[in-house]
Design a protein that fits this description.
42% helix, 6-stranded mixed sheet, 9 strands, 3-stranded antiparallel sheet, alpha/beta, binds adenosine-5'-triphosphate, Rossmann fold, single chain, 333 residues
């Protein structure tokens, strides 16, 4: 708090405006000064006339912010720097093939394995911050320590945001109303600007563009997925994002991952798609309900990824041509 300007504080904690009002503090000309600098601007005469107690105003503001954060369930996003998975056992009760795995901020880890092998179970263990109390016996640490139980039950500031294959909206809202509701619940000050950022990011991911007046119920699968990814990246306070298969979503998968990681999220995604699997820094291989091994994406694989992307571009190009009714020709003709 001591280093932030009043303008920055108001942006971060919009509720402090009511503290200034209650204490009759006119900070309007001091937005680029810290609260201490503002208090220091009072003359000795002001202090005596209005019985101003600078130390008390400062410590009360600090206490007010803490209390409001507690009351509103605000967890600061920057607090989660790493997620650690402690090994448990597979479906046969055998120990998993690793001891512990730590994933840091801005890292992408993919999860691969046959259908029914336990990929979703691993994502669920993370969401539940398992403490040896799920069928896998795994443990989850946050910043190297046992996570606070309140992560499990706080609905406002969840540790984890889940992006699943099916995004079925049941509310009768426009995209704008939906985003406004979310922005307001997150106490965002500049709602308009945030909404503009999200819609532009979402349209950057979706094949077909949509606008703010589109009802969420009439978005296509790809569009709603793009909207949820942009919303999660830009507006969600959850530092960890779990993705269950985005391959069939009809969105630009590479841009989606780049967007999430650029917002400092920890990203884990279950996938069967080689391009997505190799975009990750590491991949977890699941077999029979247990983590069998963890493979670091090698330089050779990164080179292969470039090849795969070229092939993917060819396929995407053909898909687009088919869509607009053209006939396809051999690639090199
Ligand atoms: N270590 C384990 N011990 C006991 N049961 C497990 C274990 N791991 C997974 N399971 C159970 O196995 C079943 C299948 O797992 P899960 O749904 O996670 O598979 P999946 O890999 O996500 O499959 P899909 O690719 O079809 O989505 C679930 O009921 C899950 O709870």
């Amino acid at each position: 708090m001591n280093k932030l300007t009043i303008g920055q504080l108001e942006e971060k904690y919009p509720f402090i405006i009511s503290y200034f009002e209650e204490n009759k503090l006119d900070t309007s000309n001091y937005k680029d000064k810290t609260f201490r600098e503002y208090l220091d601007s009072f003359s000795q005469e002001d202090i005596e006339n209005w019985a101003i107690n600078k130390e008390k105003l400062e410590s009360d503001l600090e206490a007010f912010i803490e209390q409001m954060k507690e009351f509103l369930g605000i967890k600061e996003d920057t607090k989660v720097k790493s997620l650690t998975i402690l090994s448990g056992h597979n479906k046969s009760g055998d120990k998993e093939g690793f001891k512990e795995l730590t994933i840091n901020k801005s890292e992408i880890v993919s999860i691969v394995g046959p259908t029914g092998s336990g990929k979703s179970r691993l994502l669920a263990d993370i969401e539940w911050t398992a403490q040896r109390d799920t069928p896998t016996g795994r443990g989850i640490l946050i910043n190297g320590a046992m996570p606070d139980k309140k992560w499990r039950f706080s609905s406002n500031n969840k540790l984890v945001a889940q992006l699943s294959q099916n995004m079925n909206f049941v509310m009768d809202l426009t995209v704008k109303e939906f985003l406004e509701l979310h922005a307001q619940s997150r106490l965002i000050q500049d709602v308009e600007e945030t909404i503009r950022k999200i819609i532009s990011a979402a349209n950057n991911l979706a094949g077909e563009k949509f606008d703010l007046e589109t009802p969420v119920t009439s978005l296509s699968g790809g569009q709603s997925r793009a909207l949820m990814i942009a919303d999660t990246a830009i507006l969600s306070s959850s530092p960890i994002v779990l993705i269950d298969e985005i391959e069939n979503a009809g969105i630009d998968r590479k841009k989606a991952l780049e967007l999430l990681v650029s917002e400092d999220k920890i990203v884990l995604m279950a996938t069967h798609d080689p391009i997505l699997a190799l975009m990750a820094d590491r991949r977890i291989v699941i077999k029979n309900g247990g983590i069998d091994k963890i493979i670091e994406t090698s330089n050779e694989e990164k080179e292969l990824l470039l090849e795969l992307e070229k092939m993917d571009n060819i396929i995407q190009g053909m898909r687009n041509r088919l869509r607009i009714g053209e006939s396809l020709k051999p690639v090199n003709s």
